[in-house]
Amino acid sequence: MNKTYLNLARKWRSKNFDQIIGQDLSVRMIKNTLYLNHFFPVYLFAGQRGCGKTSTARVFAAAINCEMLSEFQKDPRKTVLPCFVCTSCKAMEEGNHPDFIEMDAASHTGVDNVRQIIEAASLLPLLGRKKVYLIDEAHMLSKAAFNAFLKILEEPPASVLFILATTDDKKIIETVRSRCFQLFFRAIAQQDLHKLLVSVCEKEEIGFDEAGLQLLIRETEGSARDALNLLEQVRFSSDKVTEEQVLRVLGSISDDQICTLTNHIISSNDSSPQSLISYIATLKLETFAPEIVWQRFMLVLKMIVWQKYGAPVANISMTEELKSTLAKVPLKVMISLFHFCCQQEQLFLKSVDKHLFLSMFWVRIWAIAHSQASVGDVKATPVKTEPPVPQKKTVDRVVPQPAAPVAVSRTEHPNEWAAFLESVAKIDDQLVVSLFAQAKLKAHDKASGLLEVVFLKKFELFQDIFSRKESEWFAILKSVFGDNVQLEPIFEESSKAQPQAPAVSKSVAKQAMPEAPVKKVFYQSNNKVSVTNKDVPLDVSDKATWAMTHSLLEHFPGTVTEFKEDGDE
Fold this sequence. Notes:
Layout: H1 8-11, H2 24-36, E1 42-47, H3 53-64, H4 69-74, H5 87-94, E2 100-104, H6 111-121, E3 131-136, H7 143-154, E4 160-166, H8 174-177, E5 181-185, H9 190-204, E6 207-208, H10 210-220, H11 224-237, E7 240-241, H12 243-250, H13 255-266, H14 273-283, H15 290-308, H16 320-326, H17 331-350, H18 354-380, E8 410-411, H19 414-424, H20 430-437, E9 440-445, E10 450-456, H21 470-481, E11 486-492, H22 506-510, E12 520-525, E13 528-533, E14 535-537, H23 547-555, E15 561-563
Parallel strand pairs: 1-4, 1-5, 2-3, 3-4, 6-7, 10-11
Antiparallel strand pairs: 8-9, 9-10, 12-13, 14-15
Helix pairs in contact: 6-7, 9-10, 10-11, 10-12, 13-14, 13-15, 13-16, 14-18, 15-17, 17-18, 19-21
């Protein structure tokens, strides 16, 4: 009979506490539990994927029912748990222990599944000391299933122990989480992963070089399972684990390529849109996974900002050419580019053709970077004026004229913005009209077409409003600000983004505003005619007393009156 092939992640799964890597604190707490013989009815193992939660739970379950537990409690330094010699440990190793039940909550989310566990938990263990239930991905249980689970958590049988493993403990309801003994599993350190992979490569006779192994460790982000799975993929694609093979399997871009691309974008020496587009063409962007390319580009921008602040740079190897360019680029420009990229990330994720989006996005980033750099250069350059030539003859005193201001590309255009608001008010969508009416123009860069508009902070969660009637308002925007206009929304506090009030002449401002007319109602009673004021204006000048009223007046300006019904005194 052919032996079943196990992948590396299953073959090299931890089988005892000494083989669990990177979780020293959690392992120590579990060992102390076994040594003191103090068991909690419910344990919650929380941590990212591949950090050893399920493996630790299985080792813990095997140790609880191991026949060598009593010897371990006498001398824990000389006894190894589980022993894998006794009947219980052998049954655990073969995967047929009658007192160890593992359930995947992702596929067993209902109340009926939990009720089956509750009914079976009332039975005594057959082989070991306790019946151990391991519920993997416990956060996938429905709310009704959690509520059904509460009963047995409050009054658990002495012979039952539950272990909940989850990658998102916040999704487990508080009433369940508060009844658990919680252990948090952190991401495995790169040094520990390196030792594991070197050991596996040597035992499996897999060739590797250090650069390829370091890249593999970096890309798996502290997950031992992901690292072993990726190692196996590279193993079947090549006879040696190299950096090139790892990049090919991942569909990722190399550090040199992404650094050269970034240098084309931010460099001011011999940099042009043509050279950037030519380099993008040589990359053969379609051969890379776009999400990974985006992630690497954002990582480079973050590393550049760190480099500017003098912080150590990790996770990426910067080229010398890029390092020399960084000295010439202002920190403000890099932070602005990173902020703009964060704003565009949702558009990238929703894009149908992400490769095309990346190409056009980088060209736009180049325009923004160079327009901001040119503005900084103009502002930093002092204006040189020629000294006046002395005149021999006495002439009348001439009032000196102020020097002409230095022109910059980023300016405000209140008249154009007012024209845009006047046109956009005709759109048949009051939400869109209200959104722009409460906005304020910040700056317009004619070179790149970037139009910065400040919107109220409260509208940040409703950015989908921009897509409504986009064909209409964007056409108006282009007609006013030019065909190359690109809207960049900025969301700030309400005090910074109040709509501009229309200009009022001084003569008009001095005129007293007419009082609001008070409606009078005449009625006849007992042959007498009386006059009653139905609407009485209220004095709401005291903000402390009329706080809610002042909040309403900010959005709905007008006069506050009191309306009295007939018969009110």
